[in-house]
Design goal:
The protein is of the alpha/beta class. It has three domains: 230 residues, Glutamine Phosphoribosylpyrophosphate, subunit 1, domain 1, CATH 3.60.20; 189 residues, Rossmann fold (3-Layer(aba) Sandwich), CATH 3.40.50; 143 residues, Glucose-6-phosphate isomerase like protein, domain 1 (Rossmann fold). It is 34% helix and 22% strand. The protein contains 17 helices and 25 strands. Strands 3-2-4-1-10-9-11-15 form an eight-stranded antiparallel beta sheet, covered by helices on one side. It has a seven-stranded antiparallel beta sheet with strand order 5-6-7-8-12-13-14. The protein has a five-stranded parallel beta sheet with strand order 17-16-18-19-20, sandwiched between helices. Helix 8 crosses helix 12, helix 9 runs antiparallel to helix 15 and helix 15 runs parallel beside helix 17. It binds fructose -6-phosphate.
């Protein structure tokens, strides 16, 4: 949520930052802004709307130092005044920020002699720095001292008209520094500068980086800290559209290979995590949104394959379980970004009780990964569409692999998942896409739809509903097939579209009966299944892959979500009100 990019070096930083903001737009697209360092002034330019709509670079002054921000509004509505960067009263200091400052009202009261122009929490940082500069502190100390006053999570970058230093710091929100030849990039996420360098330093919580013609690190108390660059494996093609119209379709189609890539792990690592699960006394799968649904499907997979009980809990609810936690409890946290605030809070709660934490994440260097005792990477490459697709199936594959590893059948698990990967490659051809596009045309005119599943595919019914809500804005709900007659069936009218997820498993006949119950009341049944059935009004075939059916069943719904969004002229990559990487609670 909110994207930050800064540049210090010999190029035109204004251009680098505007370009980087466009690459970070998935983190927020309400408004954007840039602070450009002149000599000895600072100019700030802001606009409401998407940075991708901006094409007037020539209107901005060039500079070797610039800092930009693309916003997802939290504190304060979507206005130009609330867009970042925020400045102090004299316009000499500019600040961009990602996160939430919890004590901002208290601090604003203390700073009442200052002139505030926005409703944001961020603006207080600029005024705190201004006070410290007036008290005679150097810029770096003025920023660091200001940050010690803040409660909450933040990533902050500050620039001053009067200092050659740019200061960047983090506590709870991501910040990564790209190291080029005599140049530095500061960003919330690697894709912002991936075309310039793959050498990065991930800031740790409590790190302050001071950058000019070199870089140094301290903690918030001023103690020197050493940080070494690492080389990341993502490449520019992975982070760009590469000929596709949208990231969402690119990422859906990448599932031809990402399931296989997820399974391509170091066996020792998988076995180590499996051992941790086997030895734990109480395992929780934690995630939010789609990742929460992955956790739920994981609990079914563990029950079926590993004969193990696992609790699936959404991140924001997990703190309510703190009474049950002991040092023998294990959290397996599932996240694409590794930055989801609710899941991070679950980890904090668990750590206080001495629990162990494993994370299954896609982003190297993310906060979650670094808070965990052990981690497994999804290996999916950057996921840029706001809506999660390829990482979802990679995570399901990894939980399946772990379930097999827990019972000494790792190789069998790998064989199954690699065969799924091959089948997806065959499934996702042009004709398949055309058929789903045809169905999308029918669905686009409907306001509501329902998705039913049982067993392993009940969580996929819930996940399918998220897909249909967040991208084409259809009121979709997922139900366990058996629950219909306990209430929801009253919603079925003539022509109501309903997807039935019918795998070739032990609950096949029951879910078909549930689909028939809906059909008998006028519902239009879309069957996602390896075999056609008379009950289906429209059949979407999927390969028969036994326990891995959630992986193949969710992909047609991802496609349906994408094509229905196109039919309705909705932007599939930037759905309204949402942002990738939910770094606020
Ligand atoms: C839905 C979606 C969200 C995320 C959720 C957790 O398509 O993308 O529901 O799954 O915000 O995000 P991560 O996985 O980054 O923790």
């Amino acid at each position: 949520m909110c994207g930050i990019i800064g540049y210090i070096g010999p190029r035109n930083g204004t251009e680098v930052v505007i370009d980087g903001l466009k690459k970070l737009e998935y983190r927020g697209y309400d408004s954007w802004g840039i602070a450009i360092k002149g000599n000895p002034s600072l100019s700030v330019h802001k606009q409401v709307g998407k940075i991708s709509d901006f094409d007037d670079l020539a209107s901005l002054p060039p500079s070797s130092v610039a800092v930009g921000h693309t916003r997802w509004a939290t504190n304060g509505s979507v206005t130009k005044a609330n867009a970042h960067p925020h400045t102090c009263c004299r316009g000499k200091v500019a600040v961009v920020h990602n996160g939430i400052i919890e004590n901002f009202q208290e601090l604003k009261q203390e700073l009442r002699s200052h002139h505030f122009v926005s409703e944001t929490d961020t603006e207080i940082i600029a005024h705190l720095i201004e006070d410290n500069l007036s008290a005679g502190m150097h810029f770096k100390d003025a920023v660091t001292n200001a940050l010690t006053r803040l409660e909450g999570r933040f990533a902050v970058v500050a620039v001053s008209a009067d200092s050659k230093n740019v200061v960047a710091a983090r506590k709870g929100s991501p910040l990564v520094i790209g190291i080029g030849k005599d140049e530095y990039f500061i960003a919330s996420d690697i894709p912002a500068f991936l075309e310039h360098t793959r050498d990065v330093i991930f800031l740790d919580d409590g790190d302050v980086a001071t950058i000019s013609d070199g870089i140094s690190f301290t903690d918030f108390e001023g103690g020197v800290v050493h940080r070494e660059p690492v080389e990341i494996t993502w490449n520019v093609e992975q982070a760009s559209l590469n000929g596709h119209e949208h990231y969402m379709i690119k990422e859906i189609l990448e599932q031809r290979s990402t399931v296989g890539l997820a399974v391509d792990q170091d066996d020792a690592k998988v076995l180590k995590v499996a051992k941790m699960i086997n030895e734990a006394y109480g395992t929780f799968f934690i995630g939010c949104g789609t990742a929460g649904k992955v956790g739920l499907v994981g609990s079914y997979i563990f029950s079926t394959v590993a004969k193990k009980h696992v609790n699936a809990v959404v991140g924001s609810e997990f703190p309510s379980y703190h009474d049950f936690l002991t040092p023998k409890t294990l959290l397996v946290c599932i996240s694409q970004s590794g930055e989801t605030a609710d899941t991070l809070e679950a980890i904090e709660v668990a750590k206080k009780k001495g629990c162990k934490v494993v994370s299954i994440v896609n982003v190297m260097g993310s906060t979650m990964l670094r808070m965990s005792d052990e981690y497994i990477l999804c290996n999916s490459g950057p996921e840029k569409a706001v809506c999660s697709t390829k990482v979802t199936t990679a995570q399901i594959a990894l939980l399946t692999l772990l379930a097999y590893a827990c019972v000494g059948r790792l190789e069998e698990g790998k064989r199954l998942l690699n065969s799924v990967s091959l089948k997806l490659d065959v499934m996702l051809d042009g004709q398949y896409l055309d058929e789903i596009r045809f169905l999308a045309k029918k669905l686009a005119g409907h306001e509501s739809m329902y998705i039913i599943g049982r067993g392993l595919n009940y969580p996929m019914a819930l996940e399918g509903a998220i897909k249909m809500q967040e991208v084409p804005y259809i009121h979709a709900e997922g139900f366990a097939g058996g629950e219909l007659k306990h209430g929801p069936i009253a919603l079925i009218e003539d022509g109501t579209p309903c997807i039935a997820l019918v795998a070739n498993d032990g609950v096949k006949n029951e879910i078909l009966i549930n689909a028939l119950e809906i059909k008998s009341r006028g519902g239009f049944i879309i069957g996602i299944s390896p075999k056609d059935n008379d009950i289906f009004d429209f059949w979407i075939p999927v390969p028969d892959v036994a326990i891995a059916s959630p992986i193949v069943n969710i992909i047609p719904i991802q496609l349906l979500s994408y094509f229905t969004a196109l039919e309705k002229n909705c932007d599939p990559d930037k759905p309204r009100n949402l942002a990738k990487s939910v770094t606020v609670k």
